[in-house]
Protein backbone atom coordinates (compact mmCIF):
# COMPACT_ATOMS: atom_id res chain seq x y z
CA UNK A 1 0.00 0.00 0.00
CA UNK A 2 1.48 3.41 -0.96
CA UNK A 3 2.32 5.81 1.85
CA UNK A 4 -0.45 8.18 2.80
CA UNK A 5 -3.24 5.74 2.01
CA UNK A 6 -5.97 5.51 4.60
CA UNK A 7 -5.89 2.34 6.66
CA UNK A 8 -9.18 0.73 7.54
CA UNK A 9 -9.70 -2.58 9.25
CA UNK A 10 -11.24 -5.14 6.90
CA UNK A 11 -14.85 -6.03 7.42
CA UNK A 12 -15.51 -9.55 8.67
CA UNK A 13 -16.04 -11.95 5.77
CA UNK A 14 -19.54 -12.79 6.98
CA UNK A 15 -20.58 -9.15 6.57
CA UNK A 16 -19.25 -8.63 3.03
CA UNK A 17 -21.75 -8.64 0.19
CA UNK A 18 -21.32 -10.79 -2.91
CA UNK A 19 -23.76 -9.23 -5.38
CA UNK A 20 -21.87 -7.79 -8.34
CA UNK A 21 -24.75 -5.56 -9.46
CA UNK A 22 -24.87 -3.97 -6.01
CA UNK A 23 -21.11 -3.45 -6.15
CA UNK A 24 -21.48 -1.75 -9.54
CA UNK A 25 -24.24 0.48 -8.16
CA UNK A 26 -22.08 1.38 -5.15
CA UNK A 27 -19.17 2.11 -7.49
CA UNK A 28 -21.37 4.42 -9.57
CA UNK A 29 -22.48 6.23 -6.41
CA UNK A 30 -18.85 6.73 -5.37
CA UNK A 31 -17.89 7.97 -8.84
CA UNK A 32 -20.85 10.37 -8.81
CA UNK A 33 -19.33 12.05 -5.75
CA UNK A 34 -16.01 12.62 -7.54
CA UNK A 35 -13.81 10.89 -10.12
CA UNK A 36 -11.77 8.05 -8.65
CA UNK A 37 -8.80 5.92 -9.58
CA UNK A 38 -9.22 2.19 -9.93
CA UNK A 39 -7.11 1.67 -6.78
CA UNK A 40 -9.31 4.03 -4.76
CA UNK A 41 -12.47 2.40 -6.04
CA UNK A 42 -11.07 -1.09 -5.36
CA UNK A 43 -10.32 -0.05 -1.75
CA UNK A 44 -13.77 1.45 -1.25
CA UNK A 45 -15.63 -1.48 -2.78
CA UNK A 46 -13.41 -3.96 -0.94
CA UNK A 47 -14.66 -2.57 2.36
CA UNK A 48 -18.20 -3.63 1.58
CA UNK A 49 -18.06 -6.45 -0.95
CA UNK A 50 -16.29 -9.76 -1.42
CA UNK A 51 -13.04 -9.37 -3.38
CA UNK A 52 -14.50 -11.20 -6.38
CA UNK A 53 -17.57 -8.95 -6.50
CA UNK A 54 -15.48 -5.81 -6.05
CA UNK A 55 -13.08 -6.83 -8.84
CA UNK A 56 -15.93 -7.77 -11.18
CA UNK A 57 -17.63 -4.44 -10.50
CA UNK A 58 -14.38 -2.59 -11.18
CA UNK A 59 -13.97 -4.43 -14.49
CA UNK A 60 -17.54 -3.55 -15.47
CA UNK A 61 -17.15 0.12 -14.51
CA UNK A 62 -13.92 0.28 -16.52
CA UNK A 63 -15.64 -1.32 -19.54
CA UNK A 64 -18.40 1.28 -19.29
CA UNK A 65 -15.79 4.07 -19.24
CA UNK A 66 -16.50 5.30 -15.73
CA UNK A 67 -13.03 4.39 -14.43
CA UNK A 68 -10.04 5.60 -16.44
CA UNK A 69 -6.78 6.08 -14.55
CA UNK A 70 -5.12 7.76 -17.54
CA UNK A 71 -7.85 10.40 -17.81
CA UNK A 72 -7.88 10.85 -14.03
CA UNK A 73 -4.10 11.35 -13.88
CA UNK A 74 -4.14 13.77 -16.83
CA UNK A 75 -6.87 15.82 -15.19
CA UNK A 76 -4.99 15.78 -11.88
CA UNK A 77 -1.83 17.15 -13.53
CA UNK A 78 -3.86 19.77 -15.45
CA UNK A 79 -5.49 21.15 -12.28
CA UNK A 80 -4.59 24.71 -11.34
CA UNK A 81 -3.10 23.57 -8.04
CA UNK A 82 -0.77 21.22 -9.92
CA UNK A 83 0.53 24.02 -12.14
CA UNK A 84 2.73 25.20 -9.26
CA UNK A 85 4.26 21.84 -8.33
CA UNK A 86 7.21 19.89 -9.60
CA UNK A 87 6.90 16.77 -11.70
CA UNK A 88 8.60 14.88 -8.88
CA UNK A 89 5.94 15.94 -6.38
CA UNK A 90 3.09 15.27 -8.82
CA UNK A 91 4.54 11.83 -9.61
CA UNK A 92 4.57 10.98 -5.89
CA UNK A 93 1.00 12.23 -5.44
CA UNK A 94 -0.21 10.17 -8.40
CA UNK A 95 1.47 7.08 -6.96
CA UNK A 96 -0.25 7.75 -3.61
CA UNK A 97 -3.57 7.67 -5.46
CA UNK A 98 -2.67 4.28 -6.93
CA UNK A 99 -1.85 5.43 -10.46
CA UNK A 100 0.60 3.11 -12.22
CA UNK A 101 4.09 4.50 -12.88
CA UNK A 102 3.73 4.42 -16.68
CA UNK A 103 0.33 6.13 -16.50
CA UNK A 104 1.80 8.82 -14.24
CA UNK A 105 4.66 9.40 -16.70
CA UNK A 106 2.16 9.72 -19.56
CA UNK A 107 0.20 12.32 -17.62
CA UNK A 108 3.37 14.24 -16.80
CA UNK A 109 4.59 14.40 -20.42
CA UNK A 110 3.31 17.94 -20.88
CA UNK A 111 4.30 19.22 -17.42
CA UNK A 112 7.17 21.73 -17.49
CA UNK A 113 8.99 22.21 -14.19
CA UNK A 114 10.49 25.55 -15.24
CA UNK A 115 7.09 27.01 -16.10
CA UNK A 116 5.54 25.57 -12.95
CA UNK A 117 8.32 27.05 -10.81
CA UNK A 118 8.03 30.53 -12.34
CA UNK A 119 4.23 30.42 -11.99
CA UNK A 120 4.58 29.56 -8.31
CA UNK A 121 7.33 32.15 -7.81
CA UNK A 122 5.24 34.93 -9.36
CA UNK A 123 2.30 34.18 -7.10
CA UNK A 124 4.39 33.76 -3.96
CA UNK A 125 6.45 36.91 -4.58
CA UNK A 126 3.49 39.27 -4.53
CA UNK A 127 3.69 41.73 -1.68
CA UNK A 128 7.11 40.61 -0.46
CA UNK A 129 10.03 42.98 0.08
CA UNK A 130 12.99 42.31 -2.25
CA UNK A 131 15.37 41.41 0.60
CA UNK A 132 13.12 38.63 1.96
CA UNK A 133 11.76 37.49 -1.39
CA UNK A 134 14.61 35.26 -2.62
CA UNK A 135 15.13 33.41 0.66
CA UNK A 136 11.44 32.74 1.21
CA UNK A 137 10.78 31.87 -2.41
CA UNK A 138 13.66 29.42 -2.45
CA UNK A 139 12.20 27.55 0.52
CA UNK A 140 8.65 27.66 -0.82
CA UNK A 141 9.69 26.30 -4.20
CA UNK A 142 11.79 23.57 -2.60
CA UNK A 143 8.74 22.47 -0.59
CA UNK A 144 6.88 22.12 -3.87
CA UNK A 145 9.50 19.61 -5.00
CA UNK A 146 11.61 21.74 -7.34
CA UNK A 147 15.33 21.10 -7.60
CA UNK A 148 18.00 23.71 -6.96
CA UNK A 149 18.68 24.39 -10.66
CA UNK A 150 14.99 24.91 -11.45
CA UNK A 151 14.59 27.22 -8.45
CA UNK A 152 17.61 29.30 -9.45
CA UNK A 153 16.31 29.67 -13.03
CA UNK A 154 12.88 30.69 -11.75
CA UNK A 155 14.28 33.26 -9.33
CA UNK A 156 16.58 34.69 -12.04
CA UNK A 157 13.69 34.95 -14.45
CA UNK A 158 11.52 36.58 -11.80
CA UNK A 159 14.28 39.10 -11.03
CA UNK A 160 14.60 39.91 -14.76
CA UNK A 161 10.85 40.41 -15.05
CA UNK A 162 10.83 42.70 -12.02
CA UNK A 163 13.80 44.71 -13.37
CA UNK A 164 12.21 45.18 -16.78
CA UNK A 165 8.90 46.23 -15.20
CA UNK A 166 10.56 48.88 -13.03
Instruction: Indicate the proportion of strand residues.
Output: under 5%
**CATH architecture label of the largest domain:** Orthogonal Bundle
Instruction: Determine the structural class based on helices, strands and strand pairing.
Output: mainly alpha
* Rg calculated over all Cα atoms: 21 Å
Compressed to H and E, one letter per element, the order equals HHHHHHHHH
Q: What's the CATH first level of the largest domain?
A: Mainly Alpha
Domain count: the total is 3
Classify the fold: give the CATH topology of the largest domain.
Arc Repressor Mutant, subunit A
Helical content band: 55-70%
Largest sheet: none
> What sort of overall outline do the alpha carbons produce when their principal axes are compared?
elongated
Indicate the mean pLDDT.
Answer: 87
Number of strands: 0
Number of helical elements: 9
Low-confidence stretches: none
Oligomer: single chain
State the distance separating the first and last CA atoms.
52 Å
Model description:
By secondary structure, the chain is mostly helical. The chain has 9 helices and no strands. It has 3 domains: 67 residues, Orthogonal Bundle (Arc Repressor Mutant, subunit A); 38 residues, no CATH class; 53 residues, Arc Repressor Mutant, subunit A (Orthogonal Bundle). α2 packs antiparallel against α3. It is elongated, with a radius of gyration of 21 Å. The termini are far apart. The model has no long low-confidence stretch (mean pLDDT 87).
Amino acid sequence: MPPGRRLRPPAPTSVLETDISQAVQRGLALIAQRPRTSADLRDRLGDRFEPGAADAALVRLTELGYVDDTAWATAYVARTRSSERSARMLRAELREHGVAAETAEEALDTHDDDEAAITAARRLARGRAPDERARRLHGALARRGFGFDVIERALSRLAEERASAA
